[in-house]
C-alpha cells in the first residue's frame, strides 16, 4: 500500500471515530426530564465543603435587626434595601430608624456605592484562606437582589463594581485567584431584581434583554464550575426560561462538561437541577440526589455588625455541622460576609482556620466519601459515619470512652492523626472500640475524633 493510501486510510478512520464520538455525546433537551438525567460531575460530589461569599453594597451599612420579628431571614443584612421599603414587615421601622439616625433621611441605598471601595481586597489572600480552610470550591454573589454586579456587566451599566465604587472587576480577580489555587469557582446570581424598572414593567423583556444575556456573559467570561441562581420564587421556570438556559449551559457553554447548578429555577417543587439546596436547615435532604446545605457562620449571610459573639457558631459547632451534613451525603456551603473594604472579619478567618486544621488530619473521612446507608440510628450518642470504598469512618463529635459499631463483621481500627494502637473487639457483627488514653501531646484535635475501620466491607 502506498504512503498516500495509508494516510487516507488513517484519516478516514479518525474522521469516522470523531463522528461516532460526536454522535454519542448526549444532547440535553430543554425539559426537566432530560436535564435531570445529566449525572452530577464527580468533582462536586467528592468536594463536600465550599465557601459562600455575600459581598456587595449591603456590606457598607452591614446591619440588620436582631429581633427576628418576621421569622426566617428577617435578620439577613443583605436584604437591607428591601427592609427599608417593605412597610408590611414589623422590622421595617427598625431599619428605617437605623438608616435615618446614621445616614440621614435623604441618603438613598444607591449612595452606599461611595462607601463600597474594596480598597483592602486581596484576592490571593482570600483564596489562600479558603484553601487553608479545606474548602474545595467557592461561590461568590456576582449579583444579589439589588442588581449591583461585581463584574463589568454591560446589562448593569453604571451599576457595577467596574463603573462605580471599587472600579475593579471583583468577580474576575477573585475567580482568577481561586482557580490558580486549585479550587473550583462558582457564582451566585439573583434572577430577579427588586427595583429594576424593566423587571417591574415587563418581566419577559427583562428576561430576554437583561437576565439571560447577563447570565451568559458571566458564564462565557469566567467559565465557572457552579452556577447558583436565587430569587427564583417570584416567577415560574417558564417565565425565567430556566430550561432553555440550562440546556445551553449543558450543551453549548464552555463549561458544559463540568458545571453544576442548584434547584432554584422557579419550579414549585424545587427538585430539579444537579443538586438540591437547603438553607439554615430548611427543607429536606435526600440520599437519592446530591444536596447542599448553606448557612453563615453567624445568622446573616451579608456581614452584620449588629451580631454578637453568641450568634456565631463556634469552631466545634461548625465542624460538627460539616460532619453531620457529609454523613448524610451532602455538601456544606459555609458563608462568610466580607466588609466593604474587602477584608474578611477576623472571627470568620479564625473559624475557617480551625476547620482547615481539623480537615488536614481528618479530611479523608470527609472528601470523596458517601453516606453509609446502613448506619445505626443515632439516639443521644453523637457518632456519625462516612464510607469510602471498603473502609468505614466512625466520627465522634464528643469524646466517648467506648463505641460499639453494629453491622460490621471485620476490619482493622485506627484513629486518624494518632500513631498508637486502638483496642477493639469483634463479637458477631459488632466491633467495639475502646478509646485510647490520649495526652495533650498526642491528642490529634479537640473537636471530633475519627476512627477508621479498614476493610469493613
TrEMBL record:
Limits of the Alpha-L-fucosidase C-terminal domain: 382-454
Superkingdom to which the source organism belongs: Bacteria
Name of the molecule in the record: alpha-L-fucosidase
EC number: 3.2.1.51
Similarity field: Belongs to the glycosyl hydrolase 29 family.
Organism: Terrimonas rubra
Chain ranges of the Glycoside hydrolase family 29 N-terminal domain: 23-364
Function recorded in the entry: Alpha-L-fucosidase is responsible for hydrolyzing the alpha-1,6-linked fucose joined to the reducing-end N-acetylglucosamine of the carbohydrate moieties of glycoproteins.
Alphabetized UniProt keyword annotations: Glycosidase, Hydrolase, Signal
Amino acid at each position: 500500500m502506498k504512503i498516500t493510501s495509508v494516510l487516507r486510510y488513517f484519516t478516514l478512520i479518525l474522521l469516522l471515530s470523531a463522528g461516532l464520538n460526536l454522535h454519542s455525546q448526549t444532547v440535553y433537551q430543554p425539559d426537566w426530564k432530560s436535564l435531570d438525567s445529566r449525572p452530577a460531575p464527580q468533582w462536586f460530589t467528592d468536594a463536600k465543603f465550599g465557601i459562600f461569599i455575600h459581598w456587595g453594597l449591603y456590606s457598607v451599612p452591614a446591619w440588620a435587626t436582631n429581633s427576628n420579628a418576621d421569622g426566617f431571614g428577617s435578620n439577613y443584612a443583605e436584604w437591607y434595601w428591601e427592609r427599608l421599603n417593605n412597610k408590611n414587615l414589623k422590622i421595617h421601622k427598625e431599619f428605617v430608624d437605623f438608616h435615618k439616625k446614621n445616614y440621614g433621611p435623604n441618603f438613598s441605598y444607591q449612595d452606599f456605592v461611595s462607601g463600597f471601595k474594596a480598597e483592602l481586597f486581596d484576592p490571593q489572600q482570600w483564596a489562600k484562606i479558603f484553601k487553608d480552610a479545606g474548602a474545595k470550591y467557592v461561590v461568590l454573589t456576582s449579583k444579589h437582589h439589588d442588581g449591583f454586579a461585581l463584574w463589568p456587566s454591560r446589562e448593569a451599566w453604571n451599576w457595577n463594581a467596574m463603573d462605580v465604587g471599587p472600579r475593579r472587576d471583583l468577580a474576575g480577580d477573585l475567580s482568577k485567584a481561586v482557580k490558580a489555587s486549585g479550587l473550583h469557582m462558582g457564582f451566585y446570581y439573583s434572577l430577579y431584581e427588586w427595583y429594576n424598572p424593566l423587571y417591574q414593567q415587563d418581566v419577559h423583556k427583562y428576561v430576554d434583554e437583561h437576565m439571560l444575556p447577563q447570565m451568559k456573559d458571566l458564564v462565557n467570561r469566567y467559565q465557572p464550575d457552579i452556577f447558583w441562581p436565587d430569587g427564583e420564587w417570584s416567577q415560574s421556570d417558564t417565565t425565567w426560561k430556566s430550561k432553555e438556559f440550562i440546556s445551553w449551559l449543558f450543551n453549548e457553554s464552555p463549561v458544559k462538561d463540568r458545571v453544576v447548578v442548584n434547584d432554584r429555577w422557579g419550579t414549585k417543587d424545587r427538585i430539579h437541577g444537579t443538586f438540591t439546596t437547603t438553607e439554615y436547615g430548611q427543607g429536606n435532604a435526600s440520599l437519592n440526589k446530591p444536596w447542599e446545605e448553606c448557612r453563615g457562620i453567624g445568622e446573616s449571610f451579608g456581614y452584620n455588625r449588629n451580631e454578637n459573639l453568641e450568634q456565631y457558631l463556634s469552631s466545634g459547632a461548625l465542624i460538627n455541622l460539616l460532619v453531620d451534613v457529609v454523613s448524610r451525603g451532602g455538601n456544606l456551603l459555609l458563608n462568610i460576609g466580607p466588609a466593604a473594604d474587602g477584608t474578611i472579619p477576623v472571627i470568620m478567618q479564625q473559624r475557617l482556620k480551625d476547620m482547615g486544621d481539623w480537615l488536614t488530619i481528618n479530611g479523608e473521612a470527609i472528601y470523596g466519601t458517601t453516606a453509609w446507608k446502613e448506619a445505626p440510628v443515632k439516639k443521644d450518642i453523637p457518632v456519625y459515619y462516612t464510607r469510602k470504598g471498603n473502609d468505614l469512618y466512625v466520627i465522634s463529635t464528643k469524646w466517648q470512652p467506648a463505641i460499639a459499631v453494629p453491622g460490621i463483621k471485620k476490619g482493622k481500627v485506627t484513629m486518624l492523626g494518632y500513631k498508637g494502637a486502638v483496642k477493639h473487639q469483634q463479637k458477631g457483627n459488632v466491633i467495639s472500640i475502646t478509646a485510647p488514653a490520649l495526652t495533650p501531646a498526642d491528642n490529634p484535635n479537640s473537636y471530633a475524633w475519627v476512627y477508621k475501620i479498614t476493610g469493613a466491607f
